[in-house]
Amino acid sequence: MSRLTLAWFNLTQQAGQDLCLKIPICEVYSRVIDRAFHALSHIGWRDSERGTGYTYFKHITDEQRDRLNAFLELLQSTLCLTISPHLQPSFTNELDEAYALDFTFQQGVQPLTYTDPGKLQHEAKDLRIASAANALATVATEVIRGHPTLLRADIIAAMPRRPSKPYHLPEHLLSEIGAILKRPVGLRLFKTDHPKLRDLSLPQKLEALKTVFRLEESVQGKSVLIIDDLYQSGASVWSLAGFLKSNGAREVYALACVKSWSDTDNV
Length: 267
Hints:
CATH topology of the largest domain: Rossmann fold
Strand order of the largest sheet: 1-6-7-12-11-8
Number of helices: 8
Largest sheet: 6 strands, mixed
Structural class: alpha/beta
CATH class of the largest domain: Alpha Beta
Number of domains: 2
CATH architecture of the largest domain: 3-Layer(aba) Sandwich
Order of helices and strands: EEEHEEHEEHHHEHEHEEHE
Strand content: 15-25%
């Protein structure tokens, strides 16, 4: 699966013993937790049954436990996006972590019904309703604040627009996120003009994305968080992550407003 949520977690601590955390999909979420809480000491992740894993945290304080619990609850309500089979032939570890607030549409509901973030994204992007864009930015900021790794990013930047594109929702979201967080955001990162990617097949899109990005600012040794409105196949953000790492970025993360049900773009 390339679209994950943390279905459950189990934090337990017996009197006089270390805090035990048990989680599913340990091969993904253990790395997410370790990166977010790199200062916490634990015994290492141990395999349990059916892909679950567990560890014991050493000398954890009540405050640290509360922060860890809040982060795990955030992972339960946020989509974690890993590389799809369609992208695996072209990418490896360019994108360190990627998330979306929710799917565009509710699962298994007919006729198609927007999720709350999906409705906001539609109103903000297609109808240009400023209040919807601001609300979407507020929700995205709450995720960033609750995710230690994303909050620590040295640079928060928007997916760049095509020069001929008159309105670009990620730029508006980025400005609002910076205002809420009260920190500088943005990166002198640009795209050359190209055909609309939605009109291309996935192989054509990947080929077009090889040469579209231009950087006029150093990212050497920096961690970068990319803000986008829609994650479909992930071709754009994985390509951008590869470009940034080829220019010296240490880590690249992504946060999208919504994830489509399809992983294949127009294929």
